[in-house]
Amino acid sequence: MKAIVKYEQNAGNIKLMDIPEPFPGRGQVKIKVMAAGVCGTDLLIWKGIHKTNLPLVLGHEVSGIVVEVGEGVENVKVGDRVTTETTLATCETCDYCVNKEYNLCSNRKGIGTQVNGGFAEYVITRQESIHILPENVDFISAALTEPLACGVHAVMEKSRVKENDLVVVFGPGAIGLLTAQVAKAVGAKVIVVGISKDKRRLELAEKLGIDYAINSQETDLKSLVMDLSKGYGADVTFECAGSQKAISQGLEILRKKGQFVQMGLLEDPSAVFNTDYIVHRELEIIGSRSQKPSSWPKALKLLSEKKVNTRKLVTKILPLEEWENAFESSLNGEEVKIVLYAGQIPE
Questions:
Q1: In terms of domains, do 127 and 223 share one?
Q2: How many domains does one find in the chain?
Q3: What are the φ/ψ torsions at residue 298 (nearest 5 degrees)?
Q4: What pTM, to 2 d.p., does this model score?
């Protein structure tokens, strides 16, 4: 089968290859991949920043059709339209696994990062990670269930966002726009913050129904927040940009007892947090890593009820053969989200 493979460490060293078709083991499911989203993690692997087990088929944002099931699989059948969590295996014994917080298991193996992923004609996953797609959710939309689940985890499981809260999301990339939509679905008033180079993405935020999409290089964010909150400040801020400046702004505009949720990763992880703000305002600083099993049904429910639109984030659809174009366009910010496919164009 065709697959996009990282075959050596360091920058580059990725190509489209013909590799043996995989077969499911006990408790596993084989999916014919219909659509797979390009993620920032894929770009980090491409650039050689994120080290992985090699050789490795990239891709972890997947939707497709079940074509084969292994021994012991009971709740999934051939022909099911599905998406899959990224977890293929965990230690199953640590405190986090016991609580089904697989995103925190130190021995977790994820598709596209530690084991072969979805930039291929077929991918193997475990039956516990499978989620059946609602009938009204197409393959392209479903391929973004994973990043949507990350937003669900941050908004609905880690923070206390509630109806009529003022929420500020920094970074109008895919994660930021999905997180903003989840906050809107909960009933919050939402501001998405970008900079001049994010013009296209900020325009998309407005089309998605976000209340305010602002360029912080042109608009006084703090004044807007204070006007909207009667001088109190935002209830919750989400940092999805991976930016020191966004961290500083996100803390500055919070109300007393507000919540700051860090989702973005910085190139230099030794970020500075203003402890005066944290102590004197009794702020909560929360980390939100990826997603967990409970995030996925909520994400699919939001998609099915059309409270979140992932399809509008997909600005380019390309065949596997054009993976390099997809990676370069994603890296330079030309597109919001790119989906790859093998074979026929997904509907």
A1: no
A2: 2
A3: -65, -40
A4: 0.96
CA nearest neighbour of 2 among 327, 329, 319: 319
pLDDT of residue 280: 97
Task: Calculate mean pLDDT across residues 322-328.
Answer: 96
Q: What is the pLDDT of residues 52-106, one digit of tens each?
A: 889 999 999 999 999 999 999 999 999 999 999 999 999 999 999 999 999 999 9
CA nearest 178: which of 267, 84, 263, 287?
263
14 shares its domain with 78: yes
Asked if residue 208 and residue 113 are part of one domain, the reply reads no
Judge contact between 191 and 166, C-beta under 8 A: yes
**Residues 18 and 138 grouped into a single domain:** yes
Decide: 63 and 92 in contact? Cβ < 8 Å.
no
**pLDDT single digits (tens) 152-184:** 999 999 999 999 999 999 999 999 999 999 999
The 8-class DSSP code of residue 111 comes to B
Angle of the 295-304 helix axis to the 145-152 helix axis, nearest 10: 110
Alpha carbons within 13 angstroms on the beta-carbon side of residue 302 total: 32
Tell me, yes or no, whether 325 and 270 share the same domain.
no
pLDDT over 70 (residue 347)? no
Where on the phi/psi map is residue 92: left (φ > 0), alpha (ψ -120 to 50), or beta?
left
Residue pair 176/241 in contact by the 8 Å Cβ criterion:
yes
β-pairing, 337-341 vs 28-37, is: antiparallel
Q: Are residues 233 and 157 in the same domain?
A: yes
Distance, in Å, from the CA atom of 226 to the CA atom of 154, rounded to the nearest integer, reads 24
